[in-house]
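Long-time lurker, finally posting.

We've been working with Transcriptional regulator (Acidovorax bellezanensis) and I want a structural starting point before designing mutants. I don't trust myself to interpret raw outputs, so I'm hoping someone here can both generate the structure tokens and explain anything notable. Sequence follows.
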Amino acid sequence: MNNARKDFENSAHASTADRILFFLKSQGSASTARLAQLLETSAEAARQQVQKLVAAGWIEGRQEAASGVGRPRQNWVLTDAGNRRFPDAHAQLTAQLLGSVRQIFGAEGLDRLISQREADARVVYQQTCTGKTLAKRLEQLAAIRTAEGYMARVERDGQDWMLIEDHCPICVAARTCQGFCRSELQLFQDIIGPEAKVVREQHLLAGATRCAYRITQDPT
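Top reply, 14 upvotes:
Generated this for you. Predicted structure of Transcriptional regulator:
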């Protein structure tokens, strides 16, 4: 049973609309036919659900080039309003507070705030991510991040690992000050240790649908 199917079965208590939103959030864009397959319903029934979500402003169509000859294929993705249906850690209030910190204490004061947050998180992460292998530490790191609202998971990609975060509960704060993103990348590297290198390959703030980090083990 694939992960997408498990996610849908585990959310059976949710409404059809919420199940579609969750799938698009955790798996990325999808066609109407793909949603019908996961919902185990007809294409027409899935199309009706999609149109309701479009009318509500929670999803929108995105044209993607066909793999072969033919017209571009339309997939569905979450809008900003759709993304806001997931936890945002009091985003607007956080952004306002960050603005006040910058105004009162300047850029240096804001940098000190971010550094303190990173230091506090490092203590918690190091106490939790105690696995003896890289794979185990990544599993523990993903569990912490999921508990914090990031919807994180770890997948193998050839010889590498991918740490994928389908949601960012501090996205508004990160847009206000991208120092939060730089801080998190360094934190991940510290937790993983010198035996592997962490590179961010997808970034929400750069227009991606999620944040994704490639972890490559040092062959030496």
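Before you design anything, note these points.
The radius of gyration is 19 Å.
The first strand starts at residue 59 and ends at 64.
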